[in-house]
Design brief:
Layout lengths: L6 H21 L6 H8 L3 H7 L3 H13 L16 H18 L7 H8 L4 H27 L9 H22 L3 H15 L5
Helix pairs in contact: 1-2, 1-4, 4-7, 5-9, 6-7, 7-8, 8-9
């Protein structure tokens, strides 16, 4: 049963989550301890453990929080990605974000997945749900593009949305590792080209 919180309790919980998210972005999961989070959030140990009874519970809450965030930080994926131009603009925004930040200082599902791997089944399942949510948003966008007559009726939207998500996540990981936006640019261009190959002739 989910604990109902007072407005003050919600604010404290959110402050702890925000502190954890920022520390993980800077230091990684392994380099972030509950004591670090407690100090950054300005709460007592008893307060922290009232809302999160373990580091694992806190990490899972961060995953859930980030699953609701845009796949490209600062660029909402919800909304009018209902034509190829809008999809291209979304991809360009991902590349520009990578050029601007190099991926440093960001706590995303991709960075969490890269660090946590599959060792913890609960975290893996939480990450999976987040990625599937993003794929669903892309699927809805592709459906809108198809409804505009810009994609053939036989286009496999599940496959195309997965290709876009894989291009974003795989390209981002390579670009962060190589400190070069080339891999992300290449993967996004390839995925968009694949999507566009299903345009009516």
């Amino acid at each position: 049963m989910t604990q109902r919180l007072t407005p003050k309790g919600e604010a404290t919980r959110e402050r702890i989550l925000q502190a954890a998210t920022e520390l993980i972005a800077r230091n990684g999961v392994v380099g972030t301890g509950t004591e670090d989070v407690r100090k950054a959030a300005g709460v007592s140990g008893s307060q922290l453990y009232h809302y999160f009874d373990s580091k694992q519970a806190l990490i899972r809450a961060v995953i859930t929080r980030q699953a609701e965030a845009p796949a490209v930080p600062g660029v909402p994926m919800m909304g009018a990605l209902d034509c190829f131009d809008a999809l291209r603009a979304w991809a360009d925004a991902a590349i520009e974000n990578q050029e601007r930040t190099g991926g440093d200082g960001e706590c995303t599902l991709g960075s969490l997945a890269a660090e946590l791997g599959t060792a913890d089944e609960q975290s893996r399942a939480d990450l999976s749900r987040g990625f599937l949510r993003w794929q669903g948003l892309l699927h809805d966008s592709l459906a809108a593009i198809r409804d505009r007559g810009e994609l053939r009726a036989d286009a496999d939207l599940d496959e195309l949305s997965l290709a876009l998500l894989a291009a974003l996540e795989g390209g981002t990981l390579l670009s962060r590792t190589l400190r070069d936006t080339g891999p992300l640019r290449a993967s996004m261009n390839a995925a968009l080209g694949y999507v566009k190959s299903f345009s009516p002739r």
